[in-house]
Every structure is written in structure tokens, then in C-alpha cells.
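Chapter summary example.
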Amino acid sequence: MGKVTDEIKTIHKTFIEKQHMFFVASAPLSENGHVNLSPKGMDSFRVLSPNKVAYLDFISSGNETSAHTLENGRITFMFCSFDGSPQILRLYGQGKVILHNMSEWNKISNNFELTSAVRQIIVADIHRVQTSCGFGVPIFEFKGQRVIHEKWADKMGNEKLEKYMIENNLVSVDGLSTHLGKIH
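The structure predicted for these 184 residues follows.
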């Protein structure tokens, strides 16, 4: 059954590295605000230390995690085993966004293979790690990562991607400014 610890142990890191996808949850402080839950993949998650993780955040139709971390920092990651032994792992922490023009960018981005679709890196300090059984999670067969996103970004080019982010990524669905909105 479930266990709680205050850091990512080797067994947790090994489990994380075997997963092909994960989920990110964040929310604004407003009781009327929308909770955001996003699936992620594409080998974009890294455990940097027992209490620090990062993931590549790709250009997309919204930028909720950026707005929520700017407002309050709260972030949760969830990993589910879809094959083998059932397990769920959650990481609770305080997140922040690292943009291309920030001093931390080079140090953090060196942990990843970057593509033209990368918008920012989300880094989180983790204070709670929780496992649970995952008995209710179905078994799925992994067939591969999609390459559509990278092809889309390459086809758009830098100028059109910048325009797309200005039009779609500066404000959350609840009207909160994102980190991108603070630099434009």
C-alpha cells in the first residue's frame, strides 16, 4: 500500500524513468479558478536530486502551469504504471518556470535534448513523495512517442512560434499572467 517520504528515493527515480508519460496538476488560488491537469511525455522529465525535478514544457494551446506557478507555486506530478506491477507515484512541490533568457537556463537545459518546440522548463522543489497501489489503473501497451509536436514546431519556425505564444500563452484561462506574459 501507499507510503509517504520527504524525498525521491532511488526506487522512486527508477520507477519514474521507466514511465512513458506523467501528469502535471496545478491550480490558481481563486476558488472559482480552473484546476489544470496535463498529460506529458516525450522523455521530458528529469529527477535532478532527491528534492528537485524538472521537465521540458512544450509550446501548446495554453500555459496554465506557468500562470499557476507564478501565482502560488503549487504543483503535483503523478506517474502511473500502465504495465508490470501496479503503482502510482505522486510528487508534491513548489514549481517555478525557467525561460530561455534566465541565468539558470543553461544549467537546467543541459539535462535534456532540446527541440524547437520547447517553450520553457518547469523546475520543482519536492517536499512530499507518495506512492499508492494503482490497482485500478488499466494495463496499456506502449507503442511509441508521437513526433507531431516537434514537426509542427519545426514547420512553424521561430517567428511564427513566437507569434503563436503571444496569441495563446501569455494569459491563463482564468486571466492570470504567465511567465511569458511578464517578459512581453
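To summarize the output: The chain has one domain: 3-183.
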